[in-house]
Design a protein that fits this description.
Layout (H helix, E strand, L loop, with lengths): L6 H16 L13 H12 L5 H7 L2 H7 L3 H6 L4 E2 L5 H6 L5 H9 L6 E5 L5 E6 L2 H4 E3 L7 E2 L1 E3 L8 H5 L7 H8 L5 E2 L3 H4 L5 E2 L20 H12 L6 E3 L4 E3 L10 H10 L9 H17 L20 H4 L37 H11 L6 H11 L3
Parallel strand pairs: 1-5
Antiparallel strand pairs: 2-3, 4-6, 7-8, 9-10
């Protein structure tokens, strides 16, 4: 008679079998890569820290938090994700998944999305850094919440970046208090420059192939933003200069600039996910498109769904947006957001002030004095869910 030994062994075997079964189940398949540049870009997006270990280890002390404080359940509660396709679940279980050694094992397996670590001879994290995927990838929760197949380009809207940063040593008590107030799924890319705090909703990094300017305030094209984030926010080892911001960072060796074309090529491959509506809602979505074309398409122009490709920006007062963040940027205005996979990433607007698409429609109906009936609003929401 075959026996499996201890209860712990039985759990490990069942968990391993479950992971193997689930490894082939994907609602959203891996992006199709057609050339070496796109494959290089995928590797950069997922695994390249641009040398930012120097900051996250030597300055911030993130490795100390991971070694001594961060247990796997807390990491998941902070919104960190685990890539099921890199996870050896049996080995993870054998390293005590309820202790910090479990977190270190996940990192040793390179299974924590967007986090890279190297280890000393005693098995403790010696160096640690982050990648683009830290904020701009999530998982499909195929095994458990926070553990599943990777979905690049999907914003991690449960990631508590502020609470994670508040654990680190470079920040003052006042700064840590501000960081702890950031909602999950938000980040302020000016905080380390001016100390003000107006966190932005993490945007999707998919559907960018037809979009000229990636940022909410259209300060530059996709590679501009990749460069800005890699050097000034991730603290990678590279060069970034923008006289409008008074920023001129030159570091040797430059570990960023040569990788920007490949990174952009991979982001252009990432398609916005479409959500087919049930058959009984399709006619309503069709009516909603008529409402959209009559009331929204002058700014969300056909094709890329943003007039920013034509060089248009909007003052906050035009659309009823809070101006606080725009005032901290070079343009002082907002671009029209291209509508990409809207069903997938609430809340909406740059500051997350609209919890649902219904809130978005009601906001614009009020600000733009659109004479929409409740039925028209409902139909419009159903149409937006198909974009």
């Amino acid at each position: 008679m075959l026996t499996f030994g201890s209860a712990r062994s039985k759990v490990a075997i069942v968990a391993t079998i479950a992971a193997q079964v689930l490894s082939g189940c994907r609602d959203y398949p891996e992006p199709k890569l057609s050339n070496d540049l796109e494959r290089q870009g995928q590797a950069i997006f997922r695994d390249d820290t641009f040398g930012d270990e120097q900051f996250w280890t030597d300055t911030a002390g993130l490795h100390l938090v991971v070694n001594d404080e961060l247990q796997p359940l807390e990491a998941l509660s902070l919104g960190l994700k685990v890539d099921l396709d890199r996870l050896n679940l049996l080995q993870f279980i054998l390293h005590n998944p309820l202790s910090t050694s479990g977190t270190r094992e996940l990192l040793r397996q390179n299974a924590v999305v967007g986090v890279k670590a190297t280890f000393d001879g005693e098995g403790r994290v010696a160096r640690i850094g982050i990648t683009c995927a830290f904020c701009h990838s999530t998982v499909d929760n195929a095994l458990l919440p926070g553990i599943g197949h990777r979905m690049d380009g999907w914003p991690n809207r449960t990631l508590d970046v502020g609470k994670i940063m508040a654990k680190l040593r470079p920040f003052t008590p006042r700064q840590k208090a501000a960081l702890r107030d950031w909602p999950a799924g938000t980040y302020d890319p000016r905080f380390n420059f001016d100390g003000n705090s107006t966190p932005l909703v993490l945007p999707p990094a998919y559907g960018l192939a037809a979009v000229k300017n990636e940022t909410y305030t259209a300060e530059g094209p996709i590679s501009y933003w990749n460069n800005y984030v890699a050097v000034t926010q991730m603290h990678g080892h590279g060069n970034f200069s923008d006289a409008r911001l008074g920023v001129n960072i030159v570091q040797q060796p430059d570990m960023v600039t040569s990788k920007l074309p490949a990174l952009r090529a991979y982001q252009h491959v990432l398609q916005a996910p479409r959500r087919p509506l049930p058959f009984y809602q399709r006619s309503a979505a069709g009516r909603g498109k008529i409402v959209f074309d009559a009331n929204c398409a002058s700014c969300h122009v056909s094709g890329n769904l943003t007039d920013n490709n034509n060089g248009v920006l909007h003052a906050p007062s035009e659309t009823g947006m809070d101006s606080t963040y725009a005032a901290r940027t070079t343009q002082k205005k907002y671009r029209t957001t291209p509508l990409r996979g809207l069903w997938q990433h609430p809340p909406y607007f740059h500051d997350g002030s609209a919890e649902t698409l219904g809130d978005v429609v009601n906001h614009y109906a009020r600000v733009r004095s659109l004479p929409l009936s409740q039925k028209e609003k409902s139909d419009l929401v159903k149409y937006l869910k198909t974009l």
